[in-house]
Amino acid sequence: MLSFDEYMKQSDDSKLKNFMDTLAISNRKPTYYVNWDKVYNNSDKYEYELNALNFLIGKDNIENEATKVFTEHPELLKVMPALIASREADLDVLKIDDEADFSFYNVNFKKIDDTKITEYVDFLSEAGVLNFIQKHAKKSLVDYVYGVEVGIDSNGRKNRSGKQNEEILEINLKKLVKGTNLEWGTQVTADEIKARWNLDVPIDKSTRIYDGVVYNPDNKGITIIETNFYGSGGSKLKSVAGEFTELQALFNTEATETDIRFVWISDGKVGWTTAKKPMAAAFTHIPHIINLAMVDAGYLEAIVKK
Question: Which residue range or ranges hold the Restriction endonuclease type II DpnII-like domain (predicted)?
Answer without folding.
Answer: 16-301
